[in-house]
Amino acid sequence: MLLKKHLSSGFSLIELLVVLVILGLLAAVVAPNVMNKLGGAKSKTTRLQVESLGAALDDYSLEVGRYPSTEEGLKALVTDPGNAPGWNGPYLKKKKIPTDAWGVPFHYKSPGDHGAYDLYSLGADNAEGGEKENADINSWE
Question: Which of 13, 16, 35, 112 is least crowded, fewest Cβ atoms below 10 Å from its Cβ?
């Protein structure tokens, strides 16, 4: 008579719990770092958008002879404001005014307090000041 040793296949409940605890600990350590990187990426994206909009505003100024007024706003980069001889837009490739990385429209003022125009985002908190991802991102610094 042959005795066969019965091998069970699969994992025990304790083994599964140990794996889940290890995964939970890894997630607790890694998640904050990932979230910080994400916030930094949004700030960098918004900085690039400010620079891109600044280049489009410079193109507008070269052709029209002035920057759009505060009243005309950034819309003048995609549609002719009607009082801009030499307008040869749209000056944005997608023919759409982008929002910052948090989905909020950029603030624009011309003439600006810091130059010919002020273009800025108030950051993640959409309030003046702040640090890290809540910091303001502007065209003059």
Answer: 13
